[in-house]
Amino acid sequence: MIYGVMRIIDFSHTDRMTIAAYLFADLNRPLGIYAAMAIACISAALLAVVTERGLFAGLRRRGYAVMMICSLGLSIILQSIMAITHGSMLRTGVIREYPLTNFLNLYPREIVLLFGVPLVILCLRRLLHNTYWGQSLRATIDDYEKAIVHRLPVARLTMIAFAISGILAGASGIAIIIGTGVYPQVGFKYLIFAFAACIVGGVGNIVGALLASLTIGILITAAEFYGSALAAEGVTLLVLVAVLVFAPNGVFGHGLRRI
Amino acid sequence: MPDLYLSLGIKVIIYGLYFLSLSTLLLGKAGYWAVGNLANFALGAFIYACGPLLLGISGGLLYLWIAFTVVAVTILALIPGFAALRLQGDFFAYVSICCVEVVRVLVEKVAGPSGFSHVPRPPGLESELAIILISAFLFIIVAVWIDMFCRTRLELMFATTRTSKTWAASMGIRVRRIEVSMFGIAGGLAGLSGVLFAIYSTGTDPVRFSLMEAVILFALAYLGGIKSIWAPLLSAGLYVITTYALESAFRGSLQIYAPYATSLFFGLILILAMAFTSEKSVAK
Amino acid sequence: MAVHTNPPVNENQGPQIITLYPGLSFSFGKTPLFELPLSSEKIVIRGGDICAVFGPNGCGKTTLLNLLSGFLRPTTGQVCFGPSDDAHGIVIKSSAPRWLNPAAKIAQWDGGVRRTFQVPVISPDISITGHISVARRMKREETFTSWYIAPIRRLFQSKNQKYEIDDTSCEESEQLLKAFNLNKSISNPNTLSYGQKRLLNIAQAIFGGKRLLMLDEPFANLSTSAIAIVKQMFRDFVASKDRAVVLVEHRAKNLPDFTNGLITMRDGLLRFEALKGTKEEEERFISKLISSYFG
Amino acid sequence: MDRKRLYLIISILTIIVAVFVVSQVVQRQDDQVAAPSIIRMASLLPLDGQVASYGEMMRNGQLLAVEEINRDSMSTPIEVTFFNTSHMKDVALDRLREAHQNGYRLVVEIFGSDQANHCLPFAIENGLTILSGVDTRPDLIRLGKGAFYRIMPNDAAAAAILVQWTQELGVENIGIVYVNDDWGKGLYEEADNAARQRKVNVAIVADVIRHQSSFAGTVAKLKSNPIDAVMLFIYPDDGGNLIKEIHRQRLNTRIFATENFTGDDMINAAGDAAIGVMLAVPKPSEDSTTLSQFQEQYVDRYGADPSIFAIKGYDAVKTLYIAAVQSGADPLKTRETIRDLAIPGVGGFISFAEDGEFIPGEYDRLVYTKEGENLALSPWTP
Question: What one-character DSSP code corresponds to residue C69?
């Protein structure tokens, strides 16, 4: 979301995801699962807003590269902090989950995701395209100075955007730690494919991103099935590169963007 | 006693060569976010290591093989060059990142999970002293060449192309040709540094070719700056010495937390140096 | 009547430089933006002409210029550079392959074709003399070996000799800069004003162009004195009857007594009108044109 | 580039280098003041990057051993310093050089067979003694020329045991899942050879990567061929997820795994799916109190069951310490003492052959069973 909408390459985004996952893991014993989820998501959102205010707001005029590198530094810092507090081991089995035998033995988590994610995506789409807030946000991103001139509440808009993305990151982090578990450097792995989804899906096109990420998942699993797991990610990325070279705007994208 | 500092110095110079190709040529001249230039580095090390280990090349022939490797990497580097004609800014950055991952997977597939080891050094380069001398020699030559390059009209042509391809084409500059050939030259240079690294470390570490490395190297290249010839050495020094020395420094005081404190400091340095210095935007 | 189309060729006219053949048309979508109907004769721009593309806003003047300079390729028909019987003339066809972008080729055709854009383009990284000197073509740079040779040659040249352009062209460029009163000691061209940037682009074009200049609204936001200088420059440029200037201008008051040919674009049809005779006649003719557009 | 940043970076570099040199000098000085009675060991572990977790487990075990030794005031104190290799060969060699500068002659671990392999020439020429707990590549001992010892049976032994076990169970077709690093790949190759000798058909082979995000594809691949046993040469946490996925896709086969599946990670991830997983674990020494003691200590200290890495780290420190005490901390004499050492370790009885190779003890065959609420390992009975 941050990349697709805010158009900032934010390396620390997936680390917010990891932090939310760790928070959830630590809190769900004492507080119970739902409270833990809520706290994790909210803290991720807070962290996102703080990052935006503290780091990106000051650098927005300095170009994308500066923001990107600073977010990289931030992500390194967050990762090392997590390594100090939680160690580098894979944190698994926070909740022991059992497949629903009657329903194509999926896990409850997967069913929630299956129906929840499209819902969230559609809501976001409506939010961005059919509300005043969304439109002014996109206007802000298209032309920052002009937005300031037109007295759009730029700061508030970007803060809201970051907060939403933080909440989503928190949710995905929880899903991941319930599923396969997290470790401090897990973010980077997911980051690459998140960018892939954003770019191939077309920048700013959320539904496209959803479809693209589905495709990527299927590609990886198929590559694991037919080939080897080592080659899987490489092959997938190769396909993505080919797609990007032949369709530089992404599949569902419109208008090549420049920096 | 001097061995340690010698090998650190070798790393600094070799990565200085790499940064020459990345920051000075690709970022500075062509103006591309070539995050994935590390793929060329990896290919250089990989192809060189294939020679003696898989094809059984040995002795003086290794020098021929080095030349072949550099040429091969140059040719391979033309491919992202052509991709660059269609892609802009961070799109291209992303594609080149993907190239890094693909090359890493290739290396792991062929060379085994932890890379080649016992790659023989060519005759005359057995001792690390010889390696550091030859790398320093190469570095100086390339640096002088680039410095002179900046005073010819090629520099003007690149500045024009950076500003606007249409403008450049309207002045009769063959945009495609000069950009692709710049990618080729930079790729060959990165490949050369890769070869040197393979010779120095007598092996290839897949860890060195990972995505995180590529991004960190790019960040350091941007941090070091693109204008001067000394910038690459600074970036390389930051890359090689910072993490190493910081950890050795911390080890005494906070024993088992030294590695984490190191990376923490490294991130801090990145942010501070980026946030509190002014720079020109180099990316297209 | 002072106005007659397609004057017969006589000796004191220079060689053909651009020829637009009948049937030329260009369209972004379905409906053609402009076309040269098959019935009409071909439009020939000869050496010594200063030809203005003239028409209301949005009728595709700039598009035509982009077409002529090879950034766009015609939907049908063709444009020919140089005499049609000339061996090294260039033909822009609609059938040219997509990946082949002829812009650079055209820009290097026969000594040099240069153009300027509606918005002046300036690179912040190179000095003003650099801007001027990059505009002229240097044959020896186009070989790949020059990448290795040029820096080595530079190694043995004096430091103060800038960008290895020979002294005559050095003086030439300095005269140009003086004529446009641009201060060549300015290091960062971003400090120039908008009009100065445009002047710098024009100076580049004049310095680089040997056969043909294509200028997109060269007179926009220039002072009258500057306009006078530029006009004089163009007249000098075409004085030796082997060069031509094509410019886009929609302000009528700049045209009379300066251009000797008009390419009018009227509801999608290209027509060539030669301007001959006195200033008053030309003004009358142009005002008639304008009234026919808008009235 | 602008001056400001130039100066900034230069100053950063100078500060760092200054701190570096100062720290070196300080360490050198406390070399001189250090009483010869202290036994100092260096431990080269990967503490960041992908395999950081195993470096940390190892470090935890070694720390436990150090604390235990230093607790009783009779024995000579021990000091283990940890160097981070980032799992890179050249960095490992640099760290070893640094350790050598700072006066370390005994190296208790070089994590990773290739790292150790890269460091061996330096160790041989400078008379260092390396004792490793995890490096399982077969030819290391030969290359080590007496400088390298290990207390881990090499891949061949462990793989052979598992294959033999499957053969005794009358299994025709086995599938193998291995993790893509030198440990997993080495085990896979050895197991493949053993299976060919014992006429067991390796029906399908799948590889996984560290921290693979989903095992759906891998398990589907396993299902595609009829197999009645699968061998897992992967790390416990991934293994847990894999077993979970196997259970979920209803692939009912026997599951064999190596000794590193003892410990919490696998159980946490897999849950009840782990019932029936069969492990070949080196037999603990006769008085199996040591193992239980160690496990209690470890849980008290770190709040999790010790993994195989922790156990091996603990044993490595103990072994090298005993050898060093007997030989007066002289690395070259230590080599001899190591060779004719025979002590009960936590992870099995420790003794060395003439060439210095570790003699693998008996293997226990364990299986996970449900005891009340939680799973436990119990000896396997046909």
Answer: T
Residue C291 lies in a domain: no
The structural domains of chain A, with segments of one domain joined by +, span 2-183, 185-259
Asked whether residue C222 is assigned to any structural domain, the reply reads yes
Q: Which residues of A105-139 are buried (b: 16+ CB within 10 A; e: fewer)?
A: eebebbeebeeebeebbeebeebbeeeeebebbbb
What would the pLDDT profile of C149-200 be if each residue is shown by its tens digit?
777 777 777 655 555 556 667 777 788 888 887 877 777 777 888 888 888 8
Contacts of A221 in chain D (CB under 8 A): 214, 216-217, 220
Is residue B281 over pLDDT 50? no
Mean pLDDT, chain D, whole residue set: 80
Helix segments in B85-205, DSSP class H: 89-111, 128-149, 153-163, 165-170, 175-201
Query: Does C287 map to a domain?
Result: no
CATH, residue C98: 3.40.50.300
Q: How far apart (Å, rounded) are the C-alpha atoms in residues B86 and B82?
A: 7
Which tens digit of pLDDT belongs to each residue from C226-279?
888 888 888 888 887 788 888 888 777 777 777 888 888 877 788 887 777 777
Pairing label, strands D39-45, D106-110: parallel
ipTM of the assembly?
0.84
Which DSSP symbol is given to B10?
H
Gap between the terminal Cα atoms of chain A: 18
Name the residue range of residue C79's domain.
Answer: 16-156+164-279
Q: What is the pLDDT of residues D249-279, one digit of tens each?
A: 888 888 888 877 777 777 777 777 778 888 8
Distances (CA, A) of B23 to A2, B154, B221, B272, C150: 27, 17, 5, 20, 21
Report B:77-136 residues touching D (Cβ under 8 A).
Answer: 108, 112-115, 117-118
Chain C touches chain A, with at least 3 Cβ pairs below 8 Å, answer no
> What pLDDT does B47 receive?
93
Instruction: Identify the CA nearest to A59 among candidates A1, A8, A4.
Output: A8
Chain-chain contact of D248 with A96 (C-beta, under 8 angstroms): no
Rounded to whole angstroms, what are the CA distances from D143 to A258, B231, D123?
56, 42, 11
Q: How confident is the model at residue A7 (pLDDT cuts 50, 70, 90)?
A: low
Residue type, C264: T
Minimum mean pLDDT among A210-214, B88-92, B207-211, C104-108: which range?
B88-92
The secondary structure element, H or E, covering residue C81 is strand C78-81
Q: State yes or no: pLDDT of D202 exceeds 50.
A: yes
According to CATH, the superfamily of the domain at D38-154+286-361 is: Response regulator (3.40.50.2300)
At the top level of CATH, the class of D156-281+364-379 is: alpha beta
Residue D167 near residue D182 (C-beta atoms within 8 A): no
- CB-nearest partner of A83 from B104, B260, B283: B260
CB-CB contact of A5 with A128 (8 Å)? yes
β-pair partners for D232: D177, D257
CB contact under 8 A, D48 and B108: no
pLDDT (tens digit, 9 = 90+) per residue, A119-177?
888 888 888 778 887 788 777 776 677 777 777 777 788 888 888 888 888 888 888 88
CA angle, A231 then A234 then A237, to 5°? 145
Q: Stretch B92-110: mean pLDDT, rounded?
A: 86
**What are the structure tokens assigned to D166, written together?**
């499957």
> In three state form, how does the secondary structure of D184-210 look?
HHHHHHHHHHHHHHCCCEEEEEEEECC
Token digits for B57?
């090349």
Beta carbons within 10 angstroms of residue B54's beta carbon? 11
pLDDT of res. B12: 92
| Cβ contact, residue pair D16, B245, below 8 Å | yes
At B133, the amino acid letter reads L
